[in-house]
Amino acid sequence: MSYLLTLHQDAALTLATTDRTVPAPQVQALETALELAASLQALTASARDAAAQAQQVAREQGHRDGYVVGLAQAREEVAVQLAAALQSLAQQHQHQREELRGALVTLATALVRCMAAALAPEQVVTALAQQAFEQVVPPQPVRLRLPPDLLEPVRALLARCDLPMPVQCVPDAELHGLDCIVESQAGALLAGLDTVLASAAQRIEATQRQMSAPSAQVA
Predict the structure, then answer these.
(1) 3-state SS record for 203-215
(2) pLDDT tens column, 188-219
(3) Alpha-carbon gap, residue 18 to 169, rounded angstroms
(4) What is d(CA 63, CA 59) in angstroms, rounded to the nearest whole number?
(5) pTM above the 0.70 mark?
(6) Which of 6, 51, 159, 178 could form a disulfide with 193 if both were Cys (CB 3.0 to 4.6 A apart)?
């Protein structure tokens, strides 16, 4: 009949012998072996726990790294999209300013033309000529060239005005409508309605550009 003597038993290690007794010289060696086995079990468990903890830390770090990278990429994409949106908005704003500026100039010139149409042609040309006289510096005798059909009416109106210089009115067959030219020793000055309105429109546009320049730089 076989016989099995269990010397040590736990969940990780079982030690048994078929001898009925353990010789005394082997007891110390057996105890040492059991101690070594226990130490080995402890080391194995510690290593297993350390490995599990390292894996957990690695997973958490990976999630954090992934989150940081993803967040940085998202921020970069948002920054690019925001810059593009701001650029588009600035361009639209600039385009709208240009359209508004053109509309204001058109409106201003249309109003002046409407007012001029309500007056007699000789009254308009006389007013334009007087405005041109003010630009002749220093005051000196001038010659006012006029459409032939406006020569006498304009001359009559100027005769009633207190002019800063002598004015000689002469007909010019090449002039029509509300055109007139002021000539002096300094040169010729176009003073017709179309010329005056074009010059005024240019000044209005230049002024509006200067006023909008700071806001464009800020944008």
Answers:
(1) HHHHHHHHHHHHH
(2) 988 888 888 888 778 777 777 777 665 544 44
(3) 148
(4) 6
(5) no
(6) 178
